[in-house]
Design goal:
By secondary structure, the protein is an alpha/beta fold. Helices cover 38% and strands 21% of the residues. The strands form 5 sheets. The protein has a 7-stranded mixed sheet, with helices on both faces.
Amino acid sequence: MTTAAVPDITSRNPAAPADVLVRIPAPGAFATADAVERARAAQPGWLLAGAAARSSALGAVAAALHDAADELAALAVREVGKPLAEARAEVARAAAIWRYYAQAPFEPTGAVHEPAAGPGLLLTRRRPHGVAGLITPWNFPFAIPSWKAAPALAVGNTVVLKPAPEATACAQRLAEIVQQAVPAAVFTVLPGGATEGNALVSAADVVSFTGSTPVGRAVAGAATARGVPVQAEMGGLNAALVLPDADIEQAAGHIAASIAGYAGQKCTATSRVIAVGTALAPLREALSEALRAVPVGDPADAVTVCGPLIHEGARDQVVDAWKGLPTLAGGTMPEGPGWFAEPTLVEKVSPGHRLLREEVFGPVAALMPADDLAHAVRITNSVPYGLVTSVHTADVNTALQGLDLLDTGMIRINAPSTGVDFHLPFGGSKASSHGPREQGRAALEFYTSGRTYTVAPAGRAT
């Protein structure tokens, strides 16, 4: 009898694909179930250790991330092709996230209420679910696992993290740091693919996912069928609205950074640029010039803004998306061993084109005209996604007239569409998000469930 080969988990440098960082056998579904059971056994002790112990542990993780910042940034550059400046910023943000949630164990977990009649107490209290199953993407290999795991741990859950295969080395290094600060089985990283992800969703007590919309919908459906709390952060098809009174040069700089930064591999990247009225001609020129000036190349170079796509298939998808369209900037693939594509701006895109219906996840955007703000809002809302919209104008009063009609979860005025404030709720509408928001105090609520207690004196007549 022959046994099917266990697939390998492989992670390689997208700027130099011959450089393989990780090649290990996938652990499989049984190993996933075992990791969850060990985490479940460890959870009561982690909760009963108390607020001070959990706070101290999270603070220790923050300090360790800070101390290892250069090493971790270099690892992110090598494994996921993140430009060095962005990699350094991400590691700093990850440390800040753990530091922020280190105070959460001391937050109130409920309230005391007066009973309707007679002596006694009525209490509300939030308690952890148990084991948090976290499924994370490769594009923010330290920040996204941190903003999921830190609040889950802070309120007393244990964590099993399944990272994207392309970010396995970063996740394993994060595990080494966190496991130095917490008891055994409180934080586990389980490399793997779809098999391990499905097994984790089938076993965890609360599930948080970030990734593609099709997979996110499947995760949400499977967790919901079990009656398990679930949140899924998925795709974006984000618009930048530029009004005629905007500072065109500033807007072009913000939008170019949101198109090209990290090769557009962010769910908050700008992929549609909507120029209102007379803003079209000057914005076309300024944005085209700004994109042509974006430094493309080796992500280890401190000046690089646009590095490689994560793998060959991702690069090919981007190239296919701009093929045959009128190009204002970019539209070529730089030579070299890595999976690079130039930041690209196209125009005259038909409404049914995939650039205006699907998330391409690369450094390409479509320039579109709008007659007025109301028209721009309709265009913005016409897609299946609703994550973030940036609006560029010198008159906030004018912008406010249309902003309430935008069906996106986040709206940024005179700022790039990219960028996340980790102490505020994060999420979108429609196909971009499912379930409660994550980050900030919203995360503390998601990773706990509410309980109501009635405390009556002993011997009280009923």
